[in-house]
Amino acid sequence: MDCLKQLKLVHWIGILLALTAPLFVQSGYLMHILIDTGFFVILVTGLNIVIGYTGALSLGQQAFLGIGGYTSALLMKNYHLSYLPCLVAAALLAGIGGLLIGAVCLRLRSHYFVIVTLAFALIMELVCINWVDLTGGPMGMPGIPSPTLYLPGLTNFTFQTKTHYYYLVLVMVFIGLYVAYRLIHSRIGRALIAIRENEELAKSMGVNAFGYSLFAFVISSMYAGIAGSFQAHYLNLVTPDMFSFYSMISMLLMIAIGGKGTISGPILGAIIISMLPEFLRMAETYRLPIFGFLLVVVTLYIPDGIVHKVRPISNVLENWKMRLWRTLSLKS
Amino acid sequence: MLQQFITHMFNGAIIGSAYGLMGVGLTLIFGLMNVVNFAHGELYMLGAFLVYSLVTILQVNYFLAILLGMGGVLIFGVIIERLTIKPIRNAPILMTALVTIGLSIFLKNTALVIWGGVPKKIPNPFPSASLKLGYIYVTQPRIFALLLTIGVIILLHYLIKKTKLGKAMRATFENKDAASLMGIRVDRIYLYTFGIGSVVAAMAGILLGTIYLVYPTMGELAVLKAFIIVIMGGMGNFVGAFFSGIILGISESLGAGFISTGYKDAVGFVIVILVLLFRPQGLFGE
Amino acid sequence: MANLELKELTIQFGGLVALQDLSFHVADEEIVALIGPNGAGKTTAFNIITGFLPPTRGHVMYSGEDVVRLPPHQIASKGLIRTFQKTNIFSSVSVFDGVMMGRHCRTRSGFLKIILNTRYVQMEEERSKEKAETILDFVGLAHRRDEMARNLSSGEQRLLEIAVALAGEPNLLLLDEPATGMNPSEKERVMTLIKKVRSNGITVLLVEHDMGLVMGISDRIVVLNFGKKIAEGKPREIQENEEVIRAYLGGAG
């Protein structure tokens, strides 16, 4: 696997920590934060494909989060399917939503694109709140079953403890990051970056700008659908809050702080934004004003995100590793 | 039935005219300067809260409070423009959007901390009795709001079309490089435009706060509707924005009255999507 | 195998006729220059040929196929690639990455194959990288391969533009004022480069103001003035053509 060779020491440390976390994290509350972080990593990795790589500011990602969550919840609750089909359905329906909404919005210039994606998301939120027969209205639907892994003859396993959920989301995170990595380091990724950097030039080189932007939008919406499905069965509850702008604010902040246009950036951003309030023991009331303030400051003064500041440290560690490798191989 | 219809229409029109005022302020900032200012609703909210505090805590006269409130928001707008908008004027729209969203979140939630979430009423000198005009009952604050709105729009129209400043503004928005070569201080123009836009937003907030209630998140929906109105009106068209506001207000009112109140806010969103798809220059644009 | 034929290309903006019944052809492996005073309609013609502007009337026949009104990206995939009058590059990526982006229309890997990282995908990537290196050598920018595009001098950026266009393996290359912003030695380089491009089997149509360059490399010249073709022929004929001389001396530009 050539992509494994690309991973630096910092990445391996991160992977190791991620895999072994439940061993040294005892508090259920802290586990919840880790799981929440994983959920956001999936969400923002998807969103970053549109915002960071294609360069289009979509404010509608939460719509697909909600579509994924409600689809998965309704299917499992009403038809008693096992988790995998529900997950796939959630991704598909979210993707279809992305296709329809993207086809409309991506024709518009960037100023209008921002507003219209938001408009669609708000319409969906209202539909969710008002279509009580389908969605349970403002109170949402409690009692969503936990995910089950049903492989006939092999296993019928229900995810129950926080550790179970943690590893489930971790698997999703790894797959999501892998797909994103492959996508970005390919001709498709280059096409998206070309669209972001200079759309006119991209077209003259043979890039179907609308087609590829739409593709990115659909992929991004499917990531959101998957994240939504996970959350629905993790919390055993879906509410119209999934459609609210609040999650979009978090996503924007994560991408802005972490660093758009990179794969590690959103991961870093998700970790910081999810864990920061806990470490600072912040009162809920002050969390939002600080988020807002941070967003302003980061956008103005650290526009490329923290990931670029971390790079030197990563390189230093990398050099140590190289030297260590060399000394070890010289010895043998 | 007819009375209901007319009442809905009229109330819708009044609300619409307040939307129109919001839209007019944003026409300057978004329609002409092309700044996607998500914090516009918070300027609107601040105007209302400033007046509320002045009247209730400092016992200032209502009309004086309006002037002071507008002045306060003007100062605020200037600070915001200098600190956060100016540095990223030429950056991609993503930056401006992120900054103004951040500003909006910050202001909204700080207001929540300062004033609390319970909606407040601005004490005003208008008698609470309604006037009867033909079929309809209308309260005096609403008439006041309507008159003030029309006045402001006429003033702005005059400013843009007839004054030297207005000419300089139009030149800058059409081609800022050419304008600056002609000696226009483009930087100043942007500052003034943002300032005027903020003040107009503050006034809209004050008027609506007087008619209804004041609460920290009052700017949220208002700003979205303002964006919708600016787009409907044809990006930079004051009169268009005003009439689009009225159309929106009436559509919402009729929708809420005859279809369902829950989807009332969706009306505007659906309209803007349709407009952008089928008549992107706006209902009133060329 | 690329030949281009414009048939009665006309475009009107309101009352202004920017191009009037423009017809000319470019034969396989020719170098043809499109010249004329400022505002004659040369870049407009380019924009129509490459799909950025729909004409009011007329046809653009490319290798026998009418490509008029096709979207730019489709025209590029057919082998008709252009550069722009104002330097147009991807400023925030490296020179090498920029050229790799130009490979897009000659690569085929789809999403699924990319995710699975099949051998086809890997092979295509390798081929693209080799091609990109070759092209950078060809235009003489190999020593700048890791530099960010915006840090190049303006002359180097123009060369980069040509490199990116070549990465798409065009059959017909349209160069819009390639020598703008270049000093004499850079212009020499461009002239040699264009001749090299043609000897690799690529047909070239260029718009250019620098007469030295035009006379030095063109097989034929087409002259436009106020949207109309006023002359067509070999460089020597054009130099001696009275109407052409009048157009340049009398008109704007």
What does this structure look like?
- The complex is a heterotrimer of chains A (332), B (286) and C (253).
- By secondary structure, chain A is mainly alpha-helical.
- Chain A is built from 15 helices and 4 strands.
- Chain A has helices at 2-6, 9-24, 28-54, 61-79, 83-105, 110-130, 132-135, 162-184, 187-197, 199-204, 209-235, 245-258, 264-279, 284-301, 307-331; strands at 141-142, 148-151, 155-158, 237-238.
- In chain A, the strands form 2 sheets. A two-stranded antiparallel sheet of chain A has the order 1-4.
- In chain A, a hairpin with a 3-residue loop joins strand 2 and strand 3.
- The model of chain A has no long low-confidence stretch (mean pLDDT 88).
- Chain B is an all-alpha fold and 286 residues long.
- Chain B has a two-stranded antiparallel ribbon.
- In chain B, a hairpin with a 2-residue loop joins strand 1 and strand 2.
- Chain B starts with a helix and ends in an 8-residue tail after the last helix.
- The mean pLDDT of chain B is 85.
- Chain C has 10 helices and 10 strands.
- In chain C, helix 3 packs parallel to helix 6 and helix 5 (119-139) packs antiparallel against helix 6 (154-167).
- The longest helix of chain C has 21 residues, at 119-139.
- Chains A and C meet through helix 8, helix 9 and helix 10 of A and helix 2, helix 3, helix 4, helix 5 and helix 6 of C.
Reading the helices and strands of chain C in chain order gives: EEEHEEHEHHHHEHEHEEHH
Largest sheet of chain A: 2 strands, antiparallel
Number of helices of chain C: 10
Note the overall shape of chain A. Answer: globular
- Cα radius of gyration of chain A in angstroms: 20 Å
How much strand of chain A?
Answer: under 5%
Topology:
The complex is a heterotrimer of chains A (332), B (286) and C (253).
Chain A: H1 2-6, H2 9-24, H3 28-54, H4 61-79, H5 83-105, H6 110-130, H7 132-135, E1 141-142, E2 148-151, E3 155-158, H8 162-184, H9 187-197, H10 199-204, H11 209-235, E4 237-238, H12 245-258, H13 264-279, H14 284-301, H15 307-331
Antiparallel strand pairs in A: 1-4, 2-3
Helix pairs in contact in A: 3-8, 3-11, 3-12, 3-13, 4-5, 4-6, 4-11, 5-11, 9-11, 12-13, 12-14
Chain B: H1 2-32, H2 40-56, H3 62-85, H4 93-115, E1 130-133, E2 136-139, H5 140-162, H6 164-174, H7 176-181, H8 186-211, H9 218-233, H10 238-258, H11 264-278
Antiparallel strand pairs in B: 1-2
Helix pairs in contact in B: 1-5, 1-8, 1-9, 1-10, 2-3, 2-4, 2-8, 2-9, 3-8, 5-6, 5-8, 6-8, 9-10, 9-11, 10-11
Chain C: E1 4-13, E2 16-26, E3 31-35, H1 42-49, E4 57-62, E5 65-66, H2 72-77, E6 80-82, H3 95-102, H4 111-116, H5 119-139, H6 154-167, E7 172-176, H7 184-199, E8 203-207, H8 211-217, E9 220-225, E10 228-233, H9 235-240, H10 242-250
Parallel strand pairs in C: 3-8, 3-9, 6-7, 7-8
Antiparallel strand pairs in C: 1-2, 1-4, 4-5, 9-10
Helix pairs in contact in C: 3-6, 5-6
